[in-house]
Automatic annotation (TrEMBL):
Species of origin: Juglans regia
Gene Ontology terms: biological process: dTDP biosynthetic process
Residues of the full protein shown: 50 to 261 of 262
Name of protein: Thymidylate kinase
GO molecular function: ATP binding; dTMP kinase activity
Alphabetical UniProt keywords: ATP-binding, Kinase, Nucleotide biosynthesis, Nucleotide-binding, Transferase
Gene this protein is translated from: LOC109000982
Family the entry assigns: Belongs to the thymidylate kinase family.
EC class of the enzyme, as a word: transferase
Amino acid sequence: TSGSSKSRGALIVLEGLDRSGKTSQSSSLLKYLERLGHSAELWRFPDRSSNVGQMISSYLSNKSQLDDHTIHLLFSANRWERRSLMETKLKTGTTLIVDRYSYSGVAFSSAKGFGVEWCKAPEIGLLAPDLVLYLDIQPEQAAGRGGYGSERYEQLEFQRKVAQCYQDLYDASWKIIDACQPMEDIEKQLQNIVLDCVTTCQKGKPLSNLWS
Ligand code: NYM
């Protein structure tokens, strides 16, 4: 029941191409859950605040070069260094809205040509999300949204490959949301799905690990 100290929080992940609206929708979801009185936090990966995160950040802004395998493993390490805190938060009843997770790791690296199984391997044992929300947008439309910044990967040709890799990762449990609808419509759809998930987790759905 709501308010029970034993009920756990939900692990909710937003995925999508660059400029698909994940970041705005994540903050909007956080406010929504807080308005309803839920304990919730907004997380994002890469988490640029750690030492590993700073290496990633410097790579993304083209201030450093790294071997493609190395950066893949750093993204994964950046999730591993938050795993235990993530579990504690969830078990103590805080819902986490997470802007990008292992699926970004796999989609962006397999878009470089790595095998999906190789990409997934370092993610095995991280917490499995209770819900994956995919903000679906055509790469061309995303590119037209105020343009990409100067970060690595923010190029149409590459985003097309990433879109294909995301498609290869989809399973029936993902909620695919058309990211080209008016923002308020997207918000409403996400709110309904998320509330449902939060309730299911409160009722005792067990936590599990990737990659199943
Ligand atoms: N990215 C993100 C990866 O390549 N692998 C990962 O594991 C994660 C979490 O980093 N273009 C890429 C996707 C983005 C970039 O993300 C930075 P953001 O959401 O722009 O900070």
